[in-house]
Write a structure and sequence with these properties.
alpha/beta; Aldehyde Dehydrogenase, Chain A, domain 1; Aldehyde Dehydrogenase, Chain A, domain 2; 2 domains; 14 helices
Length: about 475
Protein backbone atom coordinates (compact mmCIF):
# COMPACT_ATOMS: atom_id res chain seq x y z
CA UNK A 1 0.00 0.00 0.00
CA UNK A 2 1.25 3.49 -0.91
CA UNK A 3 1.30 5.67 2.20
CA UNK A 4 0.68 9.32 3.02
CA UNK A 5 3.67 11.64 3.43
CA UNK A 6 3.52 13.60 6.69
CA UNK A 7 6.29 15.52 8.41
CA UNK A 8 8.96 14.05 6.16
CA UNK A 9 7.88 10.43 6.81
CA UNK A 10 5.77 7.92 4.89
CA UNK A 11 2.90 7.17 7.25
CA UNK A 12 0.54 4.21 6.91
CA UNK A 13 -3.21 4.46 7.40
CA UNK A 14 -5.74 1.96 8.66
CA UNK A 15 -7.81 2.15 5.47
CA UNK A 16 -6.90 1.96 1.80
CA UNK A 17 -8.53 2.34 -1.61
CA UNK A 18 -8.09 0.37 -4.83
CA UNK A 19 -7.17 2.49 -7.83
CA UNK A 20 -8.92 1.06 -10.92
CA UNK A 21 -7.93 1.66 -14.54
CA UNK A 22 -11.00 3.11 -16.39
CA UNK A 23 -9.71 1.59 -19.64
CA UNK A 24 -9.56 -1.90 -18.09
CA UNK A 25 -11.68 -2.51 -15.00
CA UNK A 26 -9.72 -5.70 -14.29
CA UNK A 27 -6.50 -3.72 -13.90
CA UNK A 28 -5.81 -2.48 -10.35
CA UNK A 29 -3.24 0.32 -10.55
CA UNK A 30 -2.48 -0.02 -6.84
CA UNK A 31 -3.65 0.30 -3.25
CA UNK A 32 -3.42 3.76 -1.75
CA UNK A 33 -3.81 4.89 1.83
CA UNK A 34 -6.93 6.68 2.96
CA UNK A 35 -6.06 9.33 5.51
CA UNK A 36 -8.35 10.08 8.43
CA UNK A 37 -8.86 13.33 10.34
CA UNK A 38 -5.96 12.54 12.67
CA UNK A 39 -3.62 12.12 9.69
CA UNK A 40 -4.78 15.44 8.27
CA UNK A 41 -4.25 17.20 11.59
CA UNK A 42 -0.77 15.67 11.88
CA UNK A 43 0.09 16.99 8.40
CA UNK A 44 -1.18 20.46 9.30
CA UNK A 45 0.80 20.44 12.56
CA UNK A 46 3.94 19.42 10.67
CA UNK A 47 3.45 22.21 8.15
CA UNK A 48 2.89 24.78 10.92
CA UNK A 49 6.06 23.66 12.69
CA UNK A 50 8.14 23.96 9.51
CA UNK A 51 6.70 27.25 8.26
CA UNK A 52 8.98 29.79 9.93
CA UNK A 53 12.27 28.17 8.94
CA UNK A 54 11.12 27.58 5.35
CA UNK A 55 9.81 31.14 4.98
CA UNK A 56 13.04 32.69 6.24
CA UNK A 57 15.44 30.22 4.67
CA UNK A 58 17.61 30.84 1.64
CA UNK A 59 15.92 31.32 -1.72
CA UNK A 60 18.65 29.38 -3.53
CA UNK A 61 17.72 26.22 -1.63
CA UNK A 62 14.09 26.63 -2.70
CA UNK A 63 15.09 27.19 -6.30
CA UNK A 64 17.39 24.17 -6.32
CA UNK A 65 14.70 21.88 -4.91
CA UNK A 66 12.07 23.03 -7.40
CA UNK A 67 14.51 22.62 -10.27
CA UNK A 68 15.29 19.08 -9.08
CA UNK A 69 11.58 18.23 -9.13
CA UNK A 70 11.12 19.72 -12.59
CA UNK A 71 14.11 17.90 -14.03
CA UNK A 72 12.97 14.51 -12.70
CA UNK A 73 9.44 14.99 -14.04
CA UNK A 74 10.85 15.78 -17.47
CA UNK A 75 13.26 12.85 -17.37
CA UNK A 76 10.47 10.43 -16.38
CA UNK A 77 7.66 11.91 -18.48
CA UNK A 78 6.99 8.70 -20.45
CA UNK A 79 6.94 6.51 -17.34
CA UNK A 80 4.79 8.88 -15.30
CA UNK A 81 2.61 9.79 -18.28
CA UNK A 82 1.82 6.10 -18.70
CA UNK A 83 0.86 5.87 -15.04
CA UNK A 84 -1.30 8.98 -15.35
CA UNK A 85 -3.13 7.70 -18.43
CA UNK A 86 -3.60 4.30 -16.83
CA UNK A 87 -5.34 5.70 -13.77
CA UNK A 88 -7.21 8.71 -15.27
CA UNK A 89 -7.98 7.55 -18.81
CA UNK A 90 -6.62 10.31 -21.03
CA UNK A 91 -4.60 9.15 -24.00
CA UNK A 92 -0.93 8.33 -23.58
CA UNK A 93 0.12 11.30 -25.71
CA UNK A 94 -1.90 13.60 -23.44
CA UNK A 95 -0.60 11.92 -20.29
CA UNK A 96 3.04 12.33 -21.29
CA UNK A 97 2.44 15.94 -22.31
CA UNK A 98 0.82 16.66 -18.94
CA UNK A 99 3.81 15.33 -16.99
CA UNK A 100 6.14 17.39 -19.19
CA UNK A 101 4.06 20.46 -18.47
CA UNK A 102 4.27 19.77 -14.73
CA UNK A 103 8.05 19.59 -15.05
CA UNK A 104 8.12 22.89 -16.92
CA UNK A 105 5.97 24.50 -14.23
CA UNK A 106 8.36 23.49 -11.44
CA UNK A 107 11.32 24.76 -13.44
CA UNK A 108 9.53 28.05 -14.15
CA UNK A 109 8.94 28.63 -10.45
CA UNK A 110 12.51 27.61 -9.67
CA UNK A 111 13.38 30.76 -11.57
CA UNK A 112 10.58 32.86 -10.05
CA UNK A 113 12.01 32.18 -6.57
CA UNK A 114 15.01 34.29 -7.55
CA UNK A 115 12.94 37.04 -9.20
CA UNK A 116 10.58 37.92 -6.36
CA UNK A 117 10.86 41.67 -6.19
CA UNK A 118 9.90 44.56 -3.98
CA UNK A 119 9.96 48.34 -4.03
CA UNK A 120 11.69 51.11 -2.17
CA UNK A 121 9.99 54.48 -2.38
CA UNK A 122 10.45 57.87 -0.80
CA UNK A 123 7.83 58.82 1.76
CA UNK A 124 5.88 62.06 1.55
CA UNK A 125 7.53 62.80 4.91
CA UNK A 126 11.16 63.96 5.06
CA UNK A 127 13.86 61.42 6.04
CA UNK A 128 11.41 58.49 5.84
CA UNK A 129 11.89 55.59 3.44
CA UNK A 130 9.17 53.11 2.42
CA UNK A 131 9.87 49.46 1.60
CA UNK A 132 7.24 47.20 0.02
CA UNK A 133 8.01 43.49 0.27
CA UNK A 134 6.22 40.19 -0.22
CA UNK A 135 5.97 37.53 2.48
CA UNK A 136 4.57 33.97 2.42
CA UNK A 137 0.91 33.53 3.33
CA UNK A 138 1.83 30.61 5.62
CA UNK A 139 0.41 27.08 5.49
CA UNK A 140 -1.51 26.45 2.28
CA UNK A 141 -4.10 23.69 1.86
CA UNK A 142 -4.26 22.39 -1.71
CA UNK A 143 -7.24 20.33 -2.92
CA UNK A 144 -7.23 19.27 -6.55
CA UNK A 145 -9.47 17.63 -9.13
CA UNK A 146 -8.95 14.33 -10.94
CA UNK A 147 -8.87 15.48 -14.57
CA UNK A 148 -5.29 16.83 -14.55
CA UNK A 149 -3.77 14.77 -11.73
CA UNK A 150 -0.19 16.04 -12.10
CA UNK A 151 -0.46 19.41 -13.88
CA UNK A 152 -3.00 21.02 -11.54
CA UNK A 153 -1.15 19.96 -8.37
CA UNK A 154 2.07 21.24 -9.98
CA UNK A 155 0.71 24.68 -10.74
CA UNK A 156 -0.43 25.04 -7.13
CA UNK A 157 2.38 23.30 -5.23
CA UNK A 158 5.27 24.86 -7.17
CA UNK A 159 4.38 28.53 -6.49
CA UNK A 160 3.33 27.75 -2.92
CA UNK A 161 6.78 26.34 -2.18
CA UNK A 162 8.59 28.91 -4.30
CA UNK A 163 7.20 31.82 -2.29
CA UNK A 164 8.02 30.24 1.07
CA UNK A 165 4.77 28.55 2.07
CA UNK A 166 4.31 25.07 3.52
CA UNK A 167 1.81 22.73 1.85
CA UNK A 168 -0.81 20.19 2.88
CA UNK A 169 -1.93 18.50 -0.36
CA UNK A 170 -5.10 16.45 -0.78
CA UNK A 171 -5.51 15.02 -4.28
CA UNK A 172 -8.77 13.79 -5.78
CA UNK A 173 -9.76 10.35 -4.56
CA UNK A 174 -9.86 8.92 -8.10
CA UNK A 175 -6.20 9.66 -8.94
CA UNK A 176 -3.90 8.89 -6.00
CA UNK A 177 -1.16 7.28 -8.11
CA UNK A 178 -0.13 10.48 -9.88
CA UNK A 179 -0.23 12.44 -6.61
CA UNK A 180 1.85 9.83 -4.81
CA UNK A 181 4.43 9.74 -7.62
CA UNK A 182 4.76 13.52 -7.48
CA UNK A 183 5.03 13.47 -3.68
CA UNK A 184 7.74 10.81 -3.84
CA UNK A 185 9.84 13.06 -6.08
CA UNK A 186 9.26 16.05 -3.80
CA UNK A 187 10.31 13.92 -0.80
CA UNK A 188 13.79 13.52 -2.36
CA UNK A 189 14.22 17.13 -3.49
CA UNK A 190 15.93 18.42 -0.35
CA UNK A 191 12.84 20.18 0.98
CA UNK A 192 12.88 19.98 4.82
CA UNK A 193 10.44 17.74 6.73
CA UNK A 194 6.97 19.22 7.16
CA UNK A 195 7.26 21.72 4.32
CA UNK A 196 5.30 19.45 1.96
CA UNK A 197 2.71 16.89 3.10
CA UNK A 198 0.49 14.48 1.16
CA UNK A 199 -2.79 13.25 2.67
CA UNK A 200 -4.89 11.03 0.39
CA UNK A 201 -8.48 10.45 1.37
CA UNK A 202 -12.11 11.47 1.25
CA UNK A 203 -12.94 15.12 0.80
CA UNK A 204 -15.57 14.91 3.52
CA UNK A 205 -12.84 13.81 5.96
CA UNK A 206 -9.48 15.18 4.81
CA UNK A 207 -10.78 18.21 2.95
CA UNK A 208 -13.00 19.13 5.86
CA UNK A 209 -10.07 18.90 8.28
CA UNK A 210 -7.94 21.16 6.05
CA UNK A 211 -10.52 23.89 5.58
CA UNK A 212 -11.52 23.81 9.25
CA UNK A 213 -8.01 23.99 10.75
CA UNK A 214 -7.01 27.40 12.15
CA UNK A 215 -3.40 26.59 11.25
CA UNK A 216 -4.18 26.60 7.52
CA UNK A 217 -3.86 30.18 6.30
CA UNK A 218 -4.95 29.75 2.69
CA UNK A 219 -6.77 27.23 0.51
CA UNK A 220 -6.34 26.66 -3.22
CA UNK A 221 -9.06 24.42 -4.69
CA UNK A 222 -10.00 23.08 -8.11
CA UNK A 223 -13.27 21.17 -8.40
CA UNK A 224 -17.04 21.54 -8.59
CA UNK A 225 -19.03 24.71 -8.01
CA UNK A 226 -20.96 23.12 -5.17
CA UNK A 227 -17.84 22.05 -3.29
CA UNK A 228 -16.15 25.37 -3.99
CA UNK A 229 -19.04 27.33 -2.52
CA UNK A 230 -19.06 25.14 0.57
CA UNK A 231 -15.32 25.61 1.07
CA UNK A 232 -15.65 29.36 0.56
CA UNK A 233 -18.28 29.63 3.27
CA UNK A 234 -16.23 27.53 5.67
CA UNK A 235 -12.99 29.35 4.92
CA UNK A 236 -14.55 32.80 5.21
CA UNK A 237 -15.51 32.07 8.82
CA UNK A 238 -11.78 31.98 9.63
CA UNK A 239 -10.76 34.73 7.17
CA UNK A 240 -8.67 32.27 5.15
CA UNK A 241 -7.31 33.41 1.84
CA UNK A 242 -9.24 31.46 -0.85
CA UNK A 243 -8.51 30.59 -4.47
CA UNK A 244 -11.21 28.57 -6.24
CA UNK A 245 -11.40 27.21 -9.79
CA UNK A 246 -14.84 25.72 -10.36
CA UNK A 247 -15.52 24.96 -14.00
CA UNK A 248 -17.13 26.45 -17.06
CA UNK A 249 -19.66 26.23 -19.87
CA UNK A 250 -17.35 27.52 -22.53
CA UNK A 251 -18.65 28.92 -25.84
CA UNK A 252 -17.00 28.61 -29.24
CA UNK A 253 -18.47 31.19 -31.62
CA UNK A 254 -18.22 30.40 -35.33
CA UNK A 255 -18.99 33.27 -37.70
CA UNK A 256 -19.98 33.04 -41.37
CA UNK A 257 -16.53 34.23 -42.45
CA UNK A 258 -14.65 31.55 -40.48
CA UNK A 259 -12.29 29.10 -42.14
CA UNK A 260 -14.44 25.97 -41.90
CA UNK A 261 -11.52 23.56 -41.42
CA UNK A 262 -10.06 25.71 -38.64
CA UNK A 263 -13.45 25.96 -36.93
CA UNK A 264 -14.04 22.21 -37.02
CA UNK A 265 -10.55 21.49 -35.71
CA UNK A 266 -11.05 23.97 -32.85
CA UNK A 267 -14.40 22.37 -32.03
CA UNK A 268 -13.11 18.79 -32.02
CA UNK A 269 -9.99 19.53 -30.01
CA UNK A 270 -11.77 21.84 -27.59
CA UNK A 271 -14.83 19.72 -26.93
CA UNK A 272 -13.75 16.09 -27.15
CA UNK A 273 -10.04 15.63 -26.44
CA UNK A 274 -9.29 14.47 -22.90
CA UNK A 275 -12.78 12.90 -23.20
CA UNK A 276 -14.24 16.38 -22.73
CA UNK A 277 -13.20 16.23 -19.09
CA UNK A 278 -11.62 19.69 -18.98
CA UNK A 279 -13.00 22.81 -17.32
CA UNK A 280 -11.92 24.75 -20.43
CA UNK A 281 -13.65 22.38 -22.87
CA UNK A 282 -15.93 23.87 -25.54
CA UNK A 283 -19.44 22.70 -24.76
CA UNK A 284 -21.49 25.29 -26.69
CA UNK A 285 -20.93 25.87 -30.42
CA UNK A 286 -22.65 29.16 -31.23
CA UNK A 287 -22.74 29.24 -35.02
CA UNK A 288 -23.95 31.89 -37.45
CA UNK A 289 -26.68 30.57 -39.73
CA UNK A 290 -24.81 31.17 -42.99
CA UNK A 291 -22.23 28.52 -42.05
CA UNK A 292 -24.29 26.48 -39.59
CA UNK A 293 -25.28 23.52 -41.80
CA UNK A 294 -21.82 23.13 -43.32
CA UNK A 295 -20.23 23.36 -39.87
CA UNK A 296 -22.61 20.80 -38.36
CA UNK A 297 -22.11 18.39 -41.27
CA UNK A 298 -18.32 18.68 -41.15
CA UNK A 299 -18.20 18.43 -37.36
CA UNK A 300 -20.47 15.37 -37.32
CA UNK A 301 -18.17 13.63 -39.79
CA UNK A 302 -15.10 14.55 -37.74
CA UNK A 303 -16.66 13.40 -34.46
CA UNK A 304 -17.73 10.07 -35.92
CA UNK A 305 -14.18 9.47 -37.15
CA UNK A 306 -12.67 9.85 -33.65
CA UNK A 307 -11.16 6.59 -32.36
CA UNK A 308 -12.34 5.72 -28.84
CA UNK A 309 -10.44 3.08 -26.92
CA UNK A 310 -7.92 2.05 -24.29
CA UNK A 311 -5.92 5.07 -23.18
CA UNK A 312 -2.58 3.34 -23.75
CA UNK A 313 -3.38 2.08 -27.27
CA UNK A 314 -1.41 4.12 -29.84
CA UNK A 315 -4.38 4.55 -32.18
CA UNK A 316 -6.72 5.92 -29.48
CA UNK A 317 -7.77 9.57 -29.74
CA UNK A 318 -10.44 9.57 -27.02
CA UNK A 319 -10.02 7.53 -23.83
CA UNK A 320 -12.68 6.35 -21.40
CA UNK A 321 -14.82 8.39 -19.04
CA UNK A 322 -13.07 8.42 -15.67
CA UNK A 323 -15.46 6.09 -13.78
CA UNK A 324 -18.92 4.54 -13.78
CA UNK A 325 -20.59 7.34 -11.82
CA UNK A 326 -19.35 9.96 -14.28
CA UNK A 327 -20.44 7.77 -17.19
CA UNK A 328 -23.96 7.56 -15.75
CA UNK A 329 -23.85 11.34 -15.22
CA UNK A 330 -23.04 11.82 -18.92
CA UNK A 331 -25.84 9.44 -19.94
CA UNK A 332 -28.27 11.41 -17.80
CA UNK A 333 -27.42 14.58 -19.72
CA UNK A 334 -27.85 12.72 -22.99
CA UNK A 335 -31.39 11.88 -21.89
CA UNK A 336 -31.96 15.49 -20.80
CA UNK A 337 -30.82 16.83 -24.17
CA UNK A 338 -33.18 14.51 -26.05
CA UNK A 339 -36.09 15.35 -23.75
CA UNK A 340 -35.50 19.08 -24.26
CA UNK A 341 -35.82 18.72 -28.03
CA UNK A 342 -32.21 18.92 -29.18
CA UNK A 343 -31.30 16.46 -31.93
CA UNK A 344 -28.51 13.97 -31.24
CA UNK A 345 -26.56 14.08 -34.49
CA UNK A 346 -23.82 11.68 -33.42
CA UNK A 347 -22.56 9.50 -30.58
CA UNK A 348 -23.76 9.06 -27.05
CA UNK A 349 -23.53 5.27 -26.83
CA UNK A 350 -21.50 3.00 -24.58
CA UNK A 351 -18.92 1.20 -26.66
CA UNK A 352 -17.70 -2.39 -26.23
CA UNK A 353 -13.94 -2.81 -26.48
CA UNK A 354 -11.44 -5.61 -25.91
CA UNK A 355 -11.18 -4.61 -22.25
CA UNK A 356 -14.01 -3.71 -19.90
CA UNK A 357 -13.97 0.08 -19.58
CA UNK A 358 -16.07 3.23 -19.42
CA UNK A 359 -16.10 3.97 -23.14
CA UNK A 360 -18.60 6.48 -24.56
CA UNK A 361 -18.81 7.69 -28.14
CA UNK A 362 -18.42 11.48 -28.36
CA UNK A 363 -21.85 13.10 -28.60
CA UNK A 364 -22.99 16.11 -30.62
CA UNK A 365 -26.40 17.71 -30.17
CA UNK A 366 -27.58 20.09 -32.88
CA UNK A 367 -30.43 22.59 -33.09
CA UNK A 368 -30.17 23.32 -29.39
CA UNK A 369 -31.38 26.56 -27.81
CA UNK A 370 -29.59 28.75 -25.25
CA UNK A 371 -32.08 27.98 -22.48
CA UNK A 372 -31.70 24.19 -22.63
CA UNK A 373 -29.95 22.59 -19.66
CA UNK A 374 -27.37 21.00 -21.96
CA UNK A 375 -26.47 24.55 -23.05
CA UNK A 376 -26.29 25.99 -19.52
CA UNK A 377 -25.01 23.33 -17.11
CA UNK A 378 -21.48 21.96 -17.03
CA UNK A 379 -21.54 18.31 -18.12
CA UNK A 380 -17.78 17.57 -17.96
CA UNK A 381 -17.83 14.82 -20.54
CA UNK A 382 -17.57 14.27 -24.32
CA UNK A 383 -20.88 16.03 -25.03
CA UNK A 384 -21.42 19.34 -26.81
CA UNK A 385 -24.29 21.17 -28.48
CA UNK A 386 -24.64 23.48 -31.49
CA UNK A 387 -26.81 26.61 -31.41
CA UNK A 388 -27.69 28.62 -34.53
CA UNK A 389 -27.71 32.44 -34.37
CA UNK A 390 -28.41 35.20 -36.90
CA UNK A 391 -25.56 37.62 -36.25
CA UNK A 392 -22.32 38.32 -34.46
CA UNK A 393 -24.19 40.46 -31.96
CA UNK A 394 -26.56 37.60 -31.12
CA UNK A 395 -23.61 35.19 -30.88
CA UNK A 396 -21.87 37.43 -28.35
CA UNK A 397 -25.06 37.79 -26.32
CA UNK A 398 -25.58 34.01 -26.22
CA UNK A 399 -21.92 33.44 -25.32
CA UNK A 400 -22.24 35.82 -22.36
CA UNK A 401 -25.60 34.39 -21.24
CA UNK A 402 -24.08 31.93 -18.76
CA UNK A 403 -23.38 31.76 -15.03
CA UNK A 404 -19.83 30.71 -15.96
CA UNK A 405 -16.99 32.68 -17.50
CA UNK A 406 -13.81 30.63 -17.71
CA UNK A 407 -12.77 30.28 -21.36
CA UNK A 408 -14.28 31.33 -24.67
CA UNK A 409 -13.40 31.25 -28.32
CA UNK A 410 -14.26 32.69 -31.71
CA UNK A 411 -13.46 31.46 -35.20
CA UNK A 412 -13.44 34.32 -37.70
CA UNK A 413 -11.26 35.96 -40.33
CA UNK A 414 -12.57 39.39 -39.33
CA UNK A 415 -10.10 41.45 -37.30
CA UNK A 416 -12.98 43.74 -36.35
CA UNK A 417 -15.06 40.95 -34.83
CA UNK A 418 -12.06 39.26 -33.22
CA UNK A 419 -11.01 42.50 -31.52
CA UNK A 420 -14.56 43.26 -30.36
CA UNK A 421 -15.04 39.73 -29.03
CA UNK A 422 -11.80 39.80 -27.02
CA UNK A 423 -12.90 43.06 -25.41
CA UNK A 424 -16.56 42.23 -24.72
CA UNK A 425 -16.83 38.50 -24.02
CA UNK A 426 -17.26 37.81 -20.31
CA UNK A 427 -14.56 35.24 -19.64
CA UNK A 428 -11.19 35.18 -17.96
CA UNK A 429 -9.53 33.67 -21.03
CA UNK A 430 -10.48 33.96 -24.69
CA UNK A 431 -9.14 32.42 -27.90
CA UNK A 432 -9.25 33.47 -31.55
CA UNK A 433 -9.03 30.60 -34.06
CA UNK A 434 -7.56 28.24 -31.44
CA UNK A 435 -9.38 25.75 -29.17
CA UNK A 436 -10.85 26.99 -25.88
CA UNK A 437 -9.00 24.16 -24.10
CA UNK A 438 -5.23 24.40 -24.03
CA UNK A 439 -3.39 27.13 -22.16
CA UNK A 440 0.22 28.08 -21.46
CA UNK A 441 1.84 27.67 -18.04
CA UNK A 442 3.65 31.03 -17.93
CA UNK A 443 0.55 33.25 -18.16
CA UNK A 444 -2.50 33.74 -15.89
CA UNK A 445 -5.24 31.09 -15.69
CA UNK A 446 -8.70 31.82 -14.32
CA UNK A 447 -12.19 33.00 -15.04
CA UNK A 448 -15.05 35.26 -14.06
CA UNK A 449 -18.51 34.80 -12.53
CA UNK A 450 -19.10 31.29 -11.10
CA UNK A 451 -15.94 29.87 -12.70
CA UNK A 452 -13.35 31.37 -10.38
CA UNK A 453 -12.83 33.17 -7.10
CA UNK A 454 -9.67 34.87 -5.90
CA UNK A 455 -6.37 35.73 -7.59
CA UNK A 456 -5.28 34.08 -10.83
CA UNK A 457 -3.27 30.86 -11.03
CA UNK A 458 -0.07 30.22 -12.99
CA UNK A 459 2.76 32.37 -14.25
CA UNK A 460 4.10 35.35 -12.31
CA UNK A 461 0.53 36.29 -11.33
CA UNK A 462 0.52 33.36 -8.88
CA UNK A 463 2.50 35.58 -6.50
CA UNK A 464 -0.70 37.51 -5.73
CA UNK A 465 -2.28 34.53 -3.98
CA UNK A 466 0.73 32.90 -2.37
CA UNK A 467 2.18 36.05 -0.79
CA UNK A 468 1.02 39.00 1.28
CA UNK A 469 2.33 42.52 0.84
CA UNK A 470 4.07 44.28 3.72
CA UNK A 471 4.78 48.01 3.80
CA UNK A 472 7.59 49.13 6.13
CA UNK A 473 8.49 52.74 7.06
CA UNK A 474 11.95 53.69 8.31
CA UNK A 475 13.04 57.10 9.54
CA UNK A 476 16.73 57.82 9.25
CA UNK A 477 18.60 59.74 11.95
CA UNK A 478 21.80 61.59 11.17
CA UNK A 479 24.34 62.92 13.67
Amino acid sequence: MKSNFIGGQWRESAASRSNINPSDLDDVVGQYAQADADDARAAIDAACAAQASWAHGGIQARSTSLDFIGNELLARQTELGTLLSREEGKTLVEGIAEVARAGQIFKFFAGEVLRTGGEKLPSVRPLVDVEITREPVGVVGIITSWNFPIAIPAWKIAPALAYGNCVVFKPADLVPASAWALAEIISRSGIPPGVFNLVMGRGSVVGNAIVSAPGVNALSFTGSVETGHMLLQRGAQQCKRMQLEMGGKNPLVVLDDADLDVAIDCAVQGAYYSTGQRCTASSRFIVQKGIYRRFVAGLTEAVEALRVGHALAPQTQIGPVVDESHLRHDENYLDIGKSEGARLASGGQRLPRETRGHFLSPALFIDATPKMRIAREEIFGPIACAIAVDSYEEALAVANDSPFGLSSGICTTSLKHAAHFKRHVKSGMTMVNVPTAGVDYHVPFGGTKASSYGPREQGPYAVDFFTTVKTAYTKAYFD
